[in-house]
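Following the same procedure, sequence and fold were stored together, as reproduced here.

>
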Amino acid sequence: MHYTPLYIQTENSLLKSMIRIPELVSYAKEQGFTSLALTDTSMFGVMEFYEACMESEIQPIIGLEVPYYEKHILLYAKNYHGYQNLCKIATSLSKETIDEILLKMYNSDLICILPYEAVDRLFILEKIYDEIYLGYTNREEYEKIDKERAIYVHKIAALKKEDTEYLVYLEAIRKGVFASSIETDYSKDYFPSLKEFEEKDYNFSINKKFTESIHIEIPKREGLLPQYETNGLDTFTYLKGLCKEGLKKRFGEKVPKIYIERLKYELEVIHSMGFCNYFLIVQDYVKYAKEHEILVGPGRGSAAGSLVSYVLEITDIDPIRYQLLFERFLNPERITMPDIDIDFLDERRDEVIRYCVSKYGLKRASGIITFGTLASKQAVRDVCKCLSLNGDALAKMLNSKYTLDENFKNNPNIRKYLQEQEKMRKAYFIAKKLEGLKRHTSIHAAGVVISSVDLDEVVPLYYHNNMYLCAYSMNYLENLGLLKMDFLALKNLNIIDRILRDLHKDGIKLNFESIPLNDQEAFRIFEEINTIGIFQFESEGMMNFLRKFKPKTFDEIYASLALYRPGPMGEISTYLKRKEGIEKVEYYDSRLEDILKPTYGILIYQEQIMQVANVMASYSLGEADILRRAMSKKKEDVLLGEREKFITRSIQNGYTEKIATEVYELILKFASYGFNKAHSVSYAMIAYKMAYLKAHYPAYFVKALLDMSIGSAIATKNYIYEAKKNRLQIRPPSINSSEKQY
């Protein structure tokens, strides 16, 4: 018998189901089902469901439960166009009440099922939908409806019968009531086996006809980035023009040849990969921020390795000066979406997002949804509340890094407490069953998607705080052809911004870009471990490391960020001995000296791994990036072939087999924790500039720290101590002269 369960709800119907999609698809496969329908109250889980079904060779059917005048109807997409209409309806659901006008606007290529409770709506809805069925769940309902359109729909919200009892607690948590007040009978809302369906002896031929009418494929769409306005020029010509202007702005009329050649190369790669438009869009919103005095970080991640980013003033890191590699950012031999993450002033980041929404449209620039879950502490608190118990004492015993199972095994106090408290023991067991289920929606901290079409033609949207969010989590967006851009909020930029504004008020003209990079007073901040309040350098562990390291140059500041991490920490002792001349520096071969000299013969940066492969084994930098990625992910099959290739090519280039083997093993060891140099330089730049401000304007610096700490007694106490340590006088509060800030 062929049968498709048509009314399955998962955890994406928030707090209405015990089912997780991977378990659902796996269970259905084991039971012999060849098709499945998802009919959540949202479309949050559609792509996860679709991909899991395709992987398991199960036909996915995408549906949606839609509230309609205090009842519910079920809508199913026949094809991709139907899927797009479902997206439109799901988007509307998050913002407004659904009525006939809206249903009619998006009715094509959808099939409608009216559950038995809604069959009285047939007269209205059959005028909207060409294909409409009447749902039933038992023989009595079946006898009362038109047999020609009768289709069996059994609501499923748990995989096993014994799990249905927990649906009561989900409902109680969702409604904020006691579980004892819930009267819903969930005992039949489980996933029956095919045999159980057969035993019902219903006419399933309509179900088969329904399933066979659905053919849905969700493609990866091309060209979804909006076209940037280029005054009639093609994007490549326009981008080149902006880059030439930027090059002159950075270097004046006499631009060194190395920069001209690098820029030409980068532009050709960007053009050939079809990303000119992307760079224009990013430079536009960064330009907007800077023109509106919204402080932008100097760079982050691999994007700082691009000269195009530098001359467009997207970043403020000169990639040639710091030997940063463009291929680490954009590899012409491995086509992937570019990824330029930008740090904005924390307090004004939303202004940049609002600019993009106003420029491209409310439905064409959106955030990205994320989900809060019933994590261990939350699950215990929620379950205790719905059982009229106080869960605070138990929740405080839990380590949130561990599951409830792990907490129980690792913590004897929890075991003792539960042994003595029978009601709490029951609550703990219930919480274990609910743990990890999605609980509520939230917004991705940084991700923004910008599109040339209304996004709900591609994904469902969810209305939240006066803007839309892509209603799929970020993992699924690239497969649909959408590009996530990260607009990050960095609190340390707030501190810098406050200092600079206070300086301006007092007639001292200084801005972030004009802070000099070779200031000895700034270096002394690191040397003397006076780094409280300095980005990345104020933790106790980092300060202990600085006591040994004592950086005296900017190169050593960014090296310290790369070294002070799990993995490279093992090389700190060797690095320091070589730095101090106690141990001899080894380069394996003189041809590698230029690459390894800045780090005393030790591989610290991912870029060094790429450079070594390039020099020794004649890898192109694109090939070298692929090798680095394979090594960092420990792809055994790739590494075996690469090992032979690396050694053979190195021997052809005049290296001995012994040296070639040693170096390959060395870079294999370092690849998994080699640090992205571009990121290290970018974040060291913020730290250094903060050190400059602390060294030259200590009162302004500590004032900004204290302003940022209002409301935190511990931070305030620490920064007042820091002020005194820097010989600054703190005046007591005064009713006459105190203001809102320090």
In short: The CA atoms of residues 30 and 614 lie 49 Å apart. The mean pLDDT is 93.
